[in-house]
Every structure is written in structure tokens, then in C-alpha cells.
């Protein structure tokens, strides 16, 4: 579930995903986050009726955090319209060393997806996914 993030700054204009990332990164600690905003990367950007929307991926130590994103919206002048998010801090002691072989994890996931919906194209798509951090 996405929540509105209150980080408004009238003086800060954002005209690119890079500027949105830097702005949010600079506000993270002040908003009470330890690491949730420290490693954002662009997923995609779109402009609709002059307003720009930057969808950003939360990462932890270079690994995408599954399903955790921020959307920064700015008007045609670069003034902030809104920031919605479903980010969360990741425990700093999280062990990122896999405890299972990639092939075994892919096989288990494919088996699960096939059982849920045998006609789904997702099973093949997920077989090629990179590793993700999956928050509790």
C-alpha cells in the first residue's frame, strides 16, 4: 500500500529522475529513514499534460528491494506535486549471501507459479529475474 511522503520544498525544483533521487536521498534521515531512501534508481519516467512522474526503485546494498518504490511527481516547472511510496528500512545486518542455489530457487518458484496458474506467462518471465531483497 502506497503512502504519501511529506517532503515538500518550494525552493527545490526537480526536472529529472536524477534530481528526484538526490532530493529524496538528502531528506531520508530527516524523515526517520536509515537506508530506505539511500539507494534509489530510476525504473521509468513519464510526462503527462506537462507533469512529470519519476518511478524509483528502492535498493539495498545494490540489490532491488522487491515491490518497494517511490513515485515523485513534479509540475512543468519542476515544483513538487506529490511523493507516494511504499518503502521501508532494511535491517542493516541482513545477510545477502544466498542460502540456496539460484537454480533451486528458480525451479521452486516456477513450480509454485505453474501450480497457481498453469497458463501464466509469468513463470517464464520470473525464471530470468535477478536476485531481489524481499522485506518481511
Main features:
29% strand; single chain; 136 residues; alpha+beta; 3 helices; 5-stranded antiparallel beta sheet; 5 strands
Count, helices:
3
Distance between the termini: 14 Å
Give the radius of gyration.
17 Å
The main sheet comes to: 5 strands, antiparallel
Main-sheet strand order equals 1-5-4-3-2
Order of helices and strands: EHEEEEHH
Strand fraction band? 25-35%
Contiguous low-pLDDT stretches (5 residues minimum) are none
Determine the mean pLDDT. 86
Instruction: Give the class from helix and strand content and strand pairing.
Output: alpha+beta
What is the approximate shape?
globular
Helicity level:
10-25%
Q: Please count the beta strands (DSSP E, at least 2 residues each).
A: 5
Give a structural overview.
This protein has 136 residues and is α+β, with helices and mostly antiparallel strands. The protein is built from 3 helices and 5 strands; from the N terminus they run E-H-E-E-E-E-H-H. The chain has helices at residues 17-27, 102-116, 122-127, and strands at residues 3-4, 40-48, 51-60, 63-74, 80-85.
Overview in brief:
This protein has 136 residues and is an alpha+beta fold.
Task: Give the topology.
Elements: E1 3-4, H1 17-27, E2 40-48, E3 51-60, E4 63-74, E5 80-85, H2 102-116, H3 122-127
Amino acid at each position: 500500500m502506497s503512502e504519501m511522503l511529506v517532503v515538500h520544498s518550494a525552493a527545490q525544483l526537480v526536472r529529472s529522475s536524477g534530481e528526484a533521487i538526490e532530493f529524496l536521498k538528502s531528506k531520508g534521515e530527516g524523515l526517520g529513514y536509515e537506508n530506505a531512501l539511500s539507494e534509489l534508481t530510476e525504473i521509468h519516467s513519464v510526462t503527462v499534460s506537462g507533469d512529470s512522474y519519476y518511478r524509483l526503485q528502492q535498493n539495498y546494498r545494490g540489490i532491488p528491494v522487491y515491490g518497494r518504490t517511490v513515485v515523485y511527481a513534479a509540475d512543468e516547472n519542476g515544483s513538487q506535486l506529490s511523493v507516494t511510496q511504499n518503502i521501508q528500512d532494511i535491517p542493516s545486518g541482513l545477510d545477502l549471501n544466498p542460502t540456496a542455489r539460484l537454480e533451486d530457487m528458480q525451479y521452486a518458484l516456477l513450480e509454485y507459479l505453474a501450480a497457481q496458474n498453469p497458463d501464466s506467462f509469468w513463470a517464464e518471465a520470473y525464471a530470468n529475474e535477478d536476485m531481489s531483497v524481499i522485506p518481511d
